[in-house]
Amino acid sequence: MRPRTSAASPSQQTGVLIPGTGSMFPRGADWTGDAIEIELMGAPADRAGTVDVGVHQRGAARQPILTRPGWAGWLEAIGVALSPAVAALLLRLRLMAPSVQPDPALHTTYIVDPRDFFVRFDGLLAGEGGLREASRVGFLVPARLAYLAFGAVPGFFVLRYVLALIVVAPVYLLLRRLYGPPAGVVGILVVLSSPVIVTAWGTDYPDSAVVSYAAGALACLAMPCATRWRRAWLAAGGVLLVLTAWSHGIGVPLAGATLVSYLGVRLVRDRAGLLGDLALLAGVAVAVTGLLIAASGVVLGHADFIKPTWQAYRYLSTPAQTARWHSSNPRWVLYVAYLLVPPAVLGAFAVAVARRVRALPTPVLLVGVVATAQLVAYVWLQFAGNVGALEEHYFSSPLWSGVCVALAVTVAELSRPLFDRPLARWLPAAVLLAVPLGYEAYPHVPSFGWAPFGIILAAVVVAAAAAARACARFGPQLAATATGLALVVLSGAILVLTVAPIPQGSHLPGNPFPPAPAYSSALGGSGTVYIDGYRIATELPGFVGPATYPGEGLLVWPLTSWTPPSADYVVYALGMYDRINHLHLPGNSPELAWGDRYLLKTVRPGQLLLLGSSAASFPAALRSLTPYQPTLTRAGELHSGALVLHVWVIRLGVYYHPPKSVG
Q: Taking the model in full, what pTM does it have?
């Protein structure tokens, strides 16, 4: 097949460089055929020596395969595999994040000792979906396996490393095959320097898995590859989407928006084999769900996670629960600057890829459609539905899966004029490394909301994209300089929007307004104190010991103030058994209030766990428990670094029922 070129002089037909190939397509060519198959350096080739880049539109071309030494591919693979560790050192990533609510600790309980929790609370909590955390097996199963293999803290970091690779490997390949190796490095840096993703990885809340699975799935579905590998990448994307859905309920609309977008793009661009591909995705969904059922039964002791998920959905959809967890005053969003990042990135993406839709490569089109659909789904859930998809940062952070991939494609598109220059093509990656390092040197961003600074910065992101695109008209040196400056402005504005603290006094009537996320300290911060607190919390189940009979129950009584940040580690330890609720200490006095006595009478726990940063209040607290026939069974201190947690386990004789002897 030969292209029909337009009438032009040879000097005008210099050609268009195909990234990663070193080959030129004539300018003005009118390609015909069913698919463009372009050999990209490092991409797998089919028997004909070509690679299907996923641009299923009119046009075809074949380029000769470029060979390179085998060791180069191995070095590249090792570099990608080590990129999370290198980024953690260079960017001084905060390796663990503060838990601003007890929710992450609830999941840590199932990671450390799930069976004991089921023995204690299964009958009491199952009816209202109280065991819903245990149904998030897409996260809990691999987290539990990491814990069993490596221990608490090492297992935590091993799993995070795996989650990071699930994102950076396919994103790197996607950008590399579309634009070349420098763009692949851009994709890695966009992901690993995102304060939202770094913070999500920093706790045991399942958004850490959802954001990784969803981003990896999008890259797999959009992956340019040889025809024979298409279904392998499709199956990989399907596996990650199923894990997304079974990691947290908020992952369901995320996966749904991705699938609907994929189907829409396929219907427009490439209907051939679509039914077979959908059947493959359905088979993957059934197979992965079946494997998760078996794995959940083995490692968590509870195989059925589907029924608790449905019970939790029904319970949380009741008017009382909706009123408790969903804001009735939508004006809260005007105080949260980081929520301007997704629309700003999509605006910059639209500017960067603006051209005829038919001329837009299918992988790029799919990334844009998926990221847009995910944002629309979240906005609808928040403001038209009854799910706090945006007001709770544990829920909103998975939205950055599509946002980060779209941002990486945006930077690559804006950097096209630099890709044929050996040195200048690495400029975008250098900018994306320099901007976070500059922030770490002076991490002081004032608090602001949408008006006026938030809106201005969002507009700056889009304007910087337009400026970068206009730089292609300049001469080579001027274009490189101007593009680099535009990317500095673009990435800097996005970073400032992300880390800006929420203004003080922004609480509104009818708005729960959860605590603000710790995005400002994700880069250049320290997670040492959070690691120490996590280590102490994960030692609690072993200290308390297993329940001696089903339904024994356990309540927690903190003997110190649990208000962050003065006692973050006490808060986390408290959250390990906080599924029912904890006893309150009005005025920090070690005396039982009327509400505490009512809770004891209602729950009838066999054990009481007392926690404190000091032991001064324990004697008075023990005396106040006299009517309940207390017996001290364990007392001790849990240490890690500079943190000390005093712990007491008390058996309440009026409620404790020892197991019957077996005759």
A: 0.88
